[in-house]
Amino acid sequence: MLQSLFSTWPSTLLLVAGAIFLLLALTQGMACRRHWRRQRRVAAMWRGLWLLLFLGLAVLGGGGALALRGWQGLGSETPVLRLTASQQGPGQWVLQLDFPDGAMRAVELKGDAWRVEAIVVKWQLPALLAGVPP
């Protein structure tokens, strides 16, 4: 839990910074409107420039947070099984399967003609941004 909190801090900080810049942009927009209505065009233009700057920073913060979250999701993996094989004798094997929920299962195999296959699913960026767990 604590490790996942620290791994999401950078994206959370970027998201919070984006939200703060958005609030600043809204206040500048209201001030720009107020100056425009009072016929103070130069002051309104300055407020408009500040509005554009804060909007740009808000978009950068929010976009950066989403991109960082997606990047972190691309590298995360979830184990589904731990397999341990031990040879008991010629042509006799015992496989121990350990599942993430704590369940264990032992399987005895006879012969040497067996194999283990796995299919690994890695989500693409749009699915990760939608919040699909690995």
Main sheet properties: 3 strands, antiparallel
User: What is the CA-CA span between the terminal residues?
Assistant: 16 Å
Helical residue percent band: 55-70%
- Spell the H/E element sequence: HHHEEEH
Instruction: Tell me, rounded to a whole number, the average pLDDT.
Output: 84
Low-confidence stretches: none
Shape summary: rod-shaped
Number of strands: 3
Structural class: alpha+beta
- Rg over C-alpha atoms, rounded to the nearest angstrom: 28 Å
User: What share of the residues does DSSP label as strand, in percent?
Assistant: 15-25%
The tally of helices reads: 4
Strand order of the largest sheet: 1-2-3
Provide an overview of this structure:
This protein is of the alpha+beta class. It has helices spanning 2-7, 9-37, 41-75, 125-129; strands spanning 82-89, 92-98, 104-110. A three-stranded antiparallel beta sheet has the order 1-2-3, with no helix packed on it. Helix 2 (9-37) runs antiparallel to helix 3.
Element layout with pairings:
Elements: H1 2-7, H2 9-37, H3 41-75, E1 82-89, E2 92-98, E3 104-110, H4 125-129
Antiparallel strand pairs: 1-2, 2-3
Helix pairs in contact: 2-3
